[in-house]
Design goal:
Rossmann fold; 7-stranded parallel β-sheet; binds nicotinamide-adenine-dinucleotide; alpha/beta; 280 residues; 10 helices
Length: 280
């Protein structure tokens, strides 16, 4: 990790999970951080352990005046803004598409996508004014890279975040403001396990190739790299950190062909040649 010196960052959704891990890494690296979160108890608790280089500001990331005030808080508290981590999100609307309400759909987009627009807008304004560049890192998801990684609205919001990362990266490059996204796979946080911690182990055992469970710090390290000078020529990228989940997708062999794991050989498709099979 490149040293952060006296750099100042804002982390949305920093009250827990991945955002809290990012805030921890910023302070460890010598920087200062403003945590913005809707959950006051979580936010207060998160900054408690981080010392006087961390502040909590209660915000709704879907609200423009809240987001503008969050960016201003960085300047008021620590003198400037160098990096923004647009990380807050909700799982949002779920269930069969024929049952979903417009309200649940729109709320999911407001929290997960409008937030990234607003954060980028108000952070970029400050960074352009400062005149010496900056870094924005959006937390997207593997759910935005294909179907099947999350509920319909959630997946669509994350696909939108990946694309917004590209358009804003191109637009802000002349100002030396880099915009990138990290796409986590299954990371052990409350958002992921929704009160059923064993779910993380089921995922790991059944569909994630990498043996160890995904932890928030693994994503924080990627996000910090993207925001650091080591990634100074990286912009518009979406970096997948998922223990091989997407590399192995769609894993059809695991659905109903589990017996194939007990065999090896070669199948010649429709050529008329018989497959060669060896039992293990
Ligand atoms: N955990 C995973 O497996 C996983 C996988 C892929 C992507 N992600 C993404 O990572 C990011 C962080 O997720 P997490 O797993 O740490 O979740 P989390 O629920 O632990 O943390 C998210 C935080 O965002 C806050 N938040 C939600 N709505 C808000 C709002 N309107 N205004 C302000 N704050 C709000 C919550 O209060 C919470 O503290 C999200 O963007 C999520 O979509 C997570």
């Amino acid at each position: 990790m490149e040293p952060w010196g006296d750099r100042v960052a804002v982390v949305t959704g920093g009250g827990g999970g991945i955002g809290r891990a990012i805030a921890g890494r910023i302070v460890e690296a010598g920087g200062s951080v403003i945590i913005g979160d809707l959950n006051r108890d979580r936010g207060v608790e998160a900054v408690r352990g981080l010392g006087d280089r961390a502040r909590f500001v209660p915000v709704d990331v879907a609200d423009e005046s809240d987001v503008e005030a969050l960016m201003t808080a960085a300047v008021d508290s620590f003198g400037r803004l160098d990096a923004l981590f647009n990380n807050a999100a909700i799982g949002g609307a779920f269930g069969p598409i024929v049952e979903q309400t417009v309200e649940a759909w729109d709320t999911t987009f407001a929290v997960n996508v409008r937030s990234v627009f607003l954060g980028t807008k108000h952070a970029a304004r400050l960074m352009i004014e400062q005149g010496d560049g900056g870094a924005i890192v959006n937390t997207a998801s593997v759910a935005g890279q294909s179907g099947g990684g999350g509920p319909q609205a959630y997946s669509a919001t994350k696909a939108a975040v990946i694309n917004l990362t590209q358009t804003t990266a191109a637009e802000l490059a002349p100002h030396h403001i880099r915009v990138n996204a990290v796409c986590p796979g299954a990371i052990y946080t409350e958002l992921m396990h929704r009160g059923r911690p064993e779910m993380a182990d089921e995922w790991r055992e059944e569909i994630q190739p990498w043996p160890e469970r995904g932890e928030p710090e693994m994503i924080a390290d990627v996000a910090m790299w993207l925001a650091s000078d080591a990634a100074r020529f990286v912009t518009g990228a979406s970096v997948t950190a998922d223990g091989g989940l997407m590399a192995a997708a769609p894993r059809l062999v695991d659905l109903d062909l589990a017996h194939l794991r007990r065999m090896t050989g070669i199948a010649y498709g429709n050529t008329g040649q018989e497959p060669e099979v060896r039992r293990l």
